[in-house]
Structure formats: C-alpha cells, structure tokens
Amino acid sequence: MPVKKFKQHIPEEMTLRILHKLPVKSLIRFSCVSKQWLSTIIHDPEFAKYHYKLAREQQTLSHILLVSTQTSGLESIDLETRSFGDNSGVRRLISPFNEPGHLRFLGSCNGLVFVCQGSYENMSIWNPLTGFLHNLHFPGFLSQGELTFSNHGFGYVSATDDYKVLVACYEREGDEAIGEYLVYSLRANAWAAIEDPPPYYLKTGYTQGALSNEALHWLDLLDEQHRQRILVFDLAKEEFWYMLAPTFEEADEEVGELEEDAELANLEMMDMDQRYWIHIGVFLGGSLCLWLWTADKMYIEFCVMKEYGVHESWTKLFKYSVADDLGLLDINPLRGLKTVFHTESGTVVAICYDKNELIRIEKLENVVVTSRRCPVGEVLEEVVQYDESLLSLIEYENPTQGGNEERDSTQNNEEGASTKNNEEGA
Q: Is the dihedral of CA 185, 191, 192, 198 positive or negative?
C-alpha cells in the first residue's frame, strides 16, 4: 500500500505567535525562508512594533554599542558579552554613509539611531541591524553668520505614534548668544521653529539629550539661587521646562564602596568647586540618572530619579573610584570621561577620550571587574547605545509631501535585509 504524504500546515496565527518571541537576529535569518516571511518580518510595521513591545516588556532586548572610529568605520558591540576583550560579540558594520569616519551620533530610540555626517545638513535615521536608512532633508537655520551647534536629540511620542528630532545652534552677537531650535516631526514630514527658546549655553559639552519619559534632558547652568538645573524638552508638547538637580552633602562612606538602594539624606547645598554633576543619562529601563565627580576624592557617584518629575525621589545608588576601580590615575573626568551605558545594578560603560578606549566596569559578587576595549591604531570618534529592533520608518514614508523622494538606501534591503548584508565578522 502506498504511503500517503500528509502536508503539515501550521496556522498563520500560531506562526506569528512563534515569530514574535524570537530574537531579532534569528528573525533576520528566517526572513529568507519565503517571500511571505520576508514580507512579514522585514516589511510589516505592525509586526515590528509588536515584536519590539513584547521584547521590551519581557526584557529580552539586545543592548548594543555602536562605535565609530576615525578611519575603519563602524562596529557594534553586544553588551551581553561580559568582557570587552571577548570579540565574539563584536561585528564590523558596512556603513551606508559616504564618510563613515566623520559621523556624529545625535541620539537613539527604539533601535533607530539619529546620525549626522559632519554638519546638520546631512542627517539620517538608521537601523544598524537591518540597514534601513531614512534621510532627513534639513532646511537650514535662518542665521547667516558663523554658527556653533548646540544641543540635539531624538525620541518617540507614543500618543501620536511619531518620531521627533531636535537640533539647535547659536550665533554670538557681542555678549549675547542668539540661537535657534528646530524640531522635525516624522509623521508630518516637516520642520518647525521653537518659539521662545531657552538660553543656549549649557553647563557641559555633552549636547546629546538624555531620552526619558518621552522628553530630552540636558544639564544647565545654575539658577539665581545657585541651584543646578536640568533643561527638559517635552517632545509631545514641543515645550521647554526646568527641573532641579539634587544636591548632596559630602558622603562619608569609603571610596569605591557600592551603595545599593541607599536613600539620599540631609539634602544640603554642596561646594560647587569640589562636587558637581557633570553628566546626565538614562539607566537601562528608562530612569533618568546623574553622575558627579568629586575633585578631592576622585570618584564618580551615580544617582537615579525613581519617580519621574519628583525631586524627592532622587536616590543615590553607587560610586566608583576613578583611580582604583577604573585605573585612571591621571584622568580628568570632566573633560576625558563620558558614560554611555548604565544599569542600576552597577554596570557602567564609559568612553575615555584621554586614553582612547572604552571601559566597562561592574560589581560581580562584591568584586569590581573592569575590562577595556581599545581600537588598535584607531581613534574613537563616537559611541552610542541602542537596542536592536526590526523597526523601520516605512509607514511614515510619503513622497508626495516632498521630503523623502531621495530614499537612496531606504529600500536597498528589500530583497534580503539581513545582518549578512550589513555586517562582516569581527
């Protein structure tokens, strides 16, 4: 008797439920299975959105560093790799940009990176995993003199399902700084000037806004009462406002001791010549964080805003000795050290410009472990952290509005948008 062949069939709903739970790199490979899977995985915005939402809720996102060097271009580093000395988590990226060694990373959100080539005239939103590239057509600033580029940022507004970009510049006229802020709405495909912008001189030279709670944040100058402020830009309302940074009395604990969940106490005015906030960032999970450098004891100390917008919720978490834990005996953290990744458990990744290296520091079983990555013969240019996703901007593209006719690289990956095409082995 001939054996009957049964054609097995998995319902489409079940297939989607399985695909939604897979890692993005596996999905990229599986997009080659069939045209239907390619269409679903790569070109279906709703699939990408749900997959990212589920991965974020289940905390299965892959956290990646995007690194640009002066001549060799771009590489990605998987932050799940415990040591920077392990090359298994490093991939060389094929750059879609004309001058990969002259890039500026102006922000990241939902797996997308806001990239600028040189000046603001050449701006793009790029997904380093899939290779999707959306070019922004910048109208330019109204000022005609010599401009200094100021703060910038990139974020997502959930209420309107819109991505927004903020860029700024200022022009000095005598003792005054005349500036201009422009915001771009991807859904409207239009630029608009921000009326009544804030002063343009910020406390630090780190001009990338820290993205938290759908708002961008920068450290600002002291106010009239000598309190340090945080400048906030609400992406939904497109408005600026201020919140106060915390002030601390000098800590008595031993330098380098990890202080897990220690509440801030006795908030007092500190000596700004000895202790001051020098960087603002976001902990893994989205909470706003600050770190300070104490000039006399040479350590950096981190705190987190547990409840967004509530000043009393600032909580001191941990501190590391610059000399003992980081091994930086001759570093000036104000000028030579910038953190690019933080977790509330004590893992920190920083770029050390003075030493031309990346430093990873973490607390493992009460032992501080530090690893370094230094590009041999290379100069580190830019570093940004992003989460891998399949998200693209296909659903926002509307050539009839006149802003996106030249989508050079946007559709280049349609017939196989994969890390094979976008990455080379380290």
A: positive
